[in-house]
Amino acid sequence: MNNVFCLVPILILATTWLYFLTCMTPENANGSIKLTFPTSLQELRELASLLESYYNLNSYYVIVLFCSAYLYKQAFIIPGSVFMNVLAGALFGVVKGFPLCCLLTAVGATCCYLMSRTFGSSVLHKYCPAQIKFLQEKVNKNADRLVYYLLFLRLFPMSPNWLINLLSPIVGVPLHLFFLTVLIGLMPYNFLCVQAGGMLASLRNLDDVFSFTTLLQLATIAVVALGPSFLTICSSSVP
Fold first, then answer.
1. Which residues form the signal peptide (predicted)?
2. Which residue, of 101, 126, 131, 180, is most buried by count of CB atoms within 10 Å of its CB?
3. Whole-angstrom Cα distance, residue 155 to residue 153?
């Protein structure tokens, strides 16, 4: 339990770094960047407009600020990654924003994985025993095709990614498979969000990004990803 308190200085250092970046606002900025994450589409538009106003003159600063904020949200499982992905599309475009978000998602989730493995085992066993047992059984059952199962979890739109990040080291998911399946499995989700960033001005709400059709498409991709796993199960059950 005491290990959890070791996260406090890490959180303080990470927050201090973000605050330091806001104090280093470029001189050419036509406003000030607050240490707050957007929580609505209107706030996102205002932030995107501010960053776009001097991105061409201060691109390195904007990139460092964006990457730091993205990793902060991913590592400490702060909700609202969709806003960061849409912001990436508005600032960098799909060609640059999409691979950047995929990489940051994987790196940030890996930071969460490592902190959970190092500091969170006792707390998670105390407060999430049922979830750990369920995921452990699934991981053991799919041990021979674990990569497909992990991809399915990431591709399926209703999966609680934050919980998977926390529990993966506890149930024995290898770090390299964790990183790889986050990187690949969340690509469709990241692409949809980044692509929407290019149309930020015309977005009415986030439902425009995640319509029933797009969610159905993501679910279909998840089922297709499990295809090899199902074939393996069927072939092994044939006498």
1. 1-29
2. 101
3. 6
Give the burial string for 22-41 (b: 16+ CB within 10 Å, else e): eeebeeebeeebeeebbeeb
* pLDDT higher than 50, residue 237: no
- pLDDT of res. 30: 56
Tell me 144's DSSP state.
Answer: G
Task: Write the pLDDT tens digit of every residue in 169-215.
Answer: 999 999 999 999 999 999 988 998 898 888 886 676 766 666 667 66
pTM of the complete model: 0.88
Q: Which helix (H) or strand (E) holds 133?
A: helix 129-141
The tens digit of pLDDT for each residue in 37-89 reads 888 888 888 888 888 887 887 899 999 999 999 999 999 999 988 999 999 99
Mean pLDDT value across residues 130-153: 93
Measured between alpha carbons, how far is 227 from 106 in angstroms, rounded to an integer? 24
Residues for the chain: how many in total? Answer: 239
d(C-alpha 164, C-alpha 194), whole Å: 23
The span from the CA of 224 to the CA of 148, in Å, is 10
- CA–CA separation, 95 and 166 (whole Å): 30
Q: What is the DSSP letter of 80?
A: -
146 with 173: CB under 8 angstroms?
Answer: yes
Show the tokens assigned to 8.
Answer: 């406090």
Helices 227-237 and 212-225, axial angle in degrees (round to 10): 40
Q: Between the CA of residue 98 and those of 1, 22, 50, 110, 116, what are the distances in Å?
A: 38, 24, 21, 18, 27
